[in-house]
């Protein structure tokens, strides 16, 4: 399929071909969700922890004698039902990551890009080159594109001036082509791909 090629001022520079095998799929939200959940699970720190009875600081002395007090018998002040005691079946330090087949991860990218194309929120630009590494310059150019947040995909590395200029902008995330991922594609209102990155991205996903 054909789509317009723009510069960062949204001036048309001609047409560019989009591969139907990557940008023309009927969108499967279930596959996109599978990959997003997998990504977010890998991001979780997993540092939550609670103390077992062996880790709680306290005496090992029996609180009171077994019989004759009128109270329920107790053997330790560190038990889970005692104030300041241990936690029963509490969280432990662990990784939340799990495996997801590469084919599913690849399909997730394809369907996420197809969804953006279907929503008309996918733009192909010539490059991300700007004269100065200024935040105001990047911000003004992004406003011309007409969206609220942007995920920009450049080729092997992001244009130096552009990368420096967008560091302090919360609504702009620019990555090299290898860093393109489903979560960021779905999260941002608009996906911007450079002409050079498009070639390598299609080759990676086909």
Short description:
The chain has 206 residues and is an alpha/beta fold. It has helices at residues 20-23, 29-43, 102-118, 135-145, 160-165, 182-187, 195-205, and strands at residues 2-6, 12-17, 122-125, 150-154, 172-176, 190-194. A 6-stranded mixed sheet has the order 2-1-3-6-4-5.
List strands and helices in order, with pairings.
Elements: E1 2-6, E2 12-17, H1 20-23, H2 29-43, H3 102-118, E3 122-125, H4 135-145, E4 150-154, H5 160-165, E5 172-176, H6 182-187, E6 190-194, H7 195-205
Parallel strand pairs: 1-3, 3-6, 4-5, 4-6
Antiparallel strand pairs: 1-2
Helix pairs in contact: 2-3
Name some characteristics of this structure.
alpha/beta, about 210 residues, Ribosomal Protein L4, Chain: A, about 35% helix, six-stranded mixed β-sheet, elongated
Note down, in words, how this protein is organized.
With 206 residues, the protein is an alpha/beta fold. It has two domains: 151 residues, Ribosomal protein L4/L1 (Ribosomal Protein L4, Chain: A, 3-Layer(aba) Sandwich); 41 residues, no CATH class. It contains seven helices and six strands, in the order E-E-H-H-H-E-H-E-H-E-H-E-H. The protein has a six-stranded mixed beta sheet with strand order 2-1-3-6-4-5. A hairpin with a 5-residue loop joins strand 1 and strand 2. The longest helix has 17 residues. The mean pLDDT is 93.
């Amino acid at each position: 399929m054909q789509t317009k090629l723009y510069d960062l001022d949204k001036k048309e520079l001609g047409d560019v071909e989009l591969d139907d095998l990557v940008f023309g799929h009927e969108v499967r939200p279930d596959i996109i969700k599978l990959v997003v959940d997998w990504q977010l699970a890998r991001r979780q720190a997993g540092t939550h922890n609670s103390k077992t009875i062996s880790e709680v600081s306290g005496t090992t002395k029996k609180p009171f004698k077994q019989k004759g007090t009128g109270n329920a018998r107790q053997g330790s002040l560190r038990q889970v039902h005692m104030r300041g005691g241990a936690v029963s079946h509490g969280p432990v330090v662990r990784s939340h990551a799990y495996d997801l087949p590469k084919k599913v991860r690849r399909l997730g990218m394809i369907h996420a890009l197809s969804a953006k194309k279907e929503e008309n929120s996918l733009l192909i630009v010539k490059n991300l080159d700007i004269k100065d590494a200024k935040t105001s310059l990047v911000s003004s150019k992004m406003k011309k594109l007409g969206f609220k947040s942007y995920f920009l995909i450049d080729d092997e590395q992001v244009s130096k001036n552009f990368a420096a200029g967008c560091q302090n902008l919360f609504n702009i995330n620019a990555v090299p082509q290898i860093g393109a991922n489903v979560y960021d594609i779905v999260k941002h209102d608009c996906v911007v791909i450079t002409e050079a990155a498009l070639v390598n991205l299609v080759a990676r996903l086909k």
